[in-house]
Automatic annotation (TrEMBL):
Keywords in alphabetical order: Oxidoreductase
Any Pfam family the entry gives: Aldedh
Chain ranges of the Aldehyde dehydrogenase domain: 27-473
Any one GO MF annotation of this record: oxidoreductase activity, acting on the aldehyde or oxo group of donors, NAD or NADP as acceptor
Active site: 255
Family: Belongs to the aldehyde dehydrogenase family.
Protein name as annotated: Betaine-aldehyde dehydrogenase
Keyword Lyase annotated: no
Amino acid sequence: MPDKIVVAGVSVDTRHWIGGERVASAEMFTDHSPIDGKPIGEISRGTPTEAAAAVAAAKAAFPGWAATSRAERARILHAVADGVEKRLEELAIVETTDNGALLRSHRRGVMPRVAHNFRFFADWLLTLGHEDFETRGHTNHVSWDPAGPCVLITPWNAPLMLATWKVAPALAAGNTVVLKPAEWSPLTASLLADIAAEAGLPAGVLNVVQGYGSEIGDALTAHPDVRRISFTGSVPTARRIAASAAANLTPLSLELGGKSPLLVFADADLDRAVDLAVEQYDNAGQVCLAATRFLVEESVAQEFTRRFVEKATALVQGDPRDEGTDIGPTIHPRQLEKIDGFVQRALAAGARAVIGGHRRDGRYYAPTLLTDVAQDAEIVQEEVFGPVLTLQTFATEDEAVRLADDTRFGLAATLVTGDPERAERVSARLVAGTVWVNCFFVRDLQAPFGGSRHSGVGREGGTWSFDFYCDLRNTVTAPTGWTNHG
Ligand SMILES: NC(=O)C1=CN([C@@H]2O[C@H](COP(=O)(O)OP(=O)(O)OC[C@H]3O[C@@H](n4cnc5c(N)ncnc54)[C@H](O)[C@@H]3O)[C@@H](O)[C@H]2O)C=CC1
Ligand SMILES: O=C(O)/C=C/C=C(\O)C(=O)O
């Protein structure tokens, strides 16, 4: 099998990146493009042996990287960002080919965000204070010490963006990393390894292991030398990882699914509400933060639905490489099956498809809005992770809050209202890691990000990332000449 494949004109190494070297596995797995379902290439299929080698490389590189000054770490991370920006077009087209998300989004939003992830955490590192305070004449000195090798496990819906949202703070904190990208979208992680090496990141500081989570996951997450695990993905996999990490009490950060509400009150600017609602089809609905449950005040529900249908039916679904495409394919036939299963079960249970409700050719699923759904219905309670939205109505603010909060998730919520006092009141009553008022997906990397309940454990972002990726130490020093007897 070739060590390199050419993807949309870009050469991508198909091997792992361990200790600053490319390492091949005996077995391979086939990576397919969601655009047409065709094979892109054969990728090294990691085994527990390569997983252990990657952790060993991260362990060996840790003392050197941890001892590197903050300024030097920040300089190298900025050089990684430069490399991302230099290869932005290549990263964008490779990612689109691999995961089917829109090329225009990768070019204009996602890949610039990848670079920003590195710049932001490099700069934030330099602002981290050493908290000093006094206790009865003694000095307390709080330091942010690197924790050690980190295992970062990432999904396929925004592969490089979500990987670097973890890699950047982990490296900035002085840790070394083993990154395990999703097997449905392995390519840009390999390009990141090249970019990091060119930027001067020392060997072993970033390692990339390819393969199936079910085959190498435990070898990474149960490894006694791993000091942190950060995971974004599904709840069942999170449970498995948490169980595996329990053996060594390895600290975890889990960013999981959602079933977030979009609350539209009668006092809202309806056009804005509809614009925000249509945005929920972004990335073919494969977004953990998506506000997939529309909760609309009865008096405006009919007009909201009319305007939504007008806008949603004008969306163009097709090849994600075309500038005019608004919705691309779903990632994998298994995901398509899963999405359609949810929709057909909902229809059989009495839901009505206002639009969509069916597959299209290939891996494409028609943008769908379902109504006449009960609060306890599977389609209202479970994450679909596809272009499938539901609409329910409410009569009072209390009912809106009750419906919004009545799932096992707590990742995000979006409110559309013209009344700032209502916005404040309702936000305070919702269990959600992020609440957006009259906006959606406005992200500042210094904000805490994560979910409550089954949407996750812990927060990352700004200082919260360093809180997770560092071992905080308090050193208490007695004043000169002090004795226990005073
Ligand atoms: N929160 C989010 O952003 C995401 C949520 N999901 C949800 O999960 C559903 C299923 O998607 P999947 O791809 O099956 O998600 P998944 O959670 O199984 O996969 C995510 C990552 O976990 C890895 N993984 C799988 N088993 C593992 C194990 N035992 N140990 C360590 N790592 C392991 C995978 O290789 C991949 O890198 C979706 O339909 C969606 O509802 C999926 C991807 C992202
Ligand atoms: O903005 C972030 O840091 C995270 C975004 C998460 C997603 O887009 C996702 O998981 O779908």
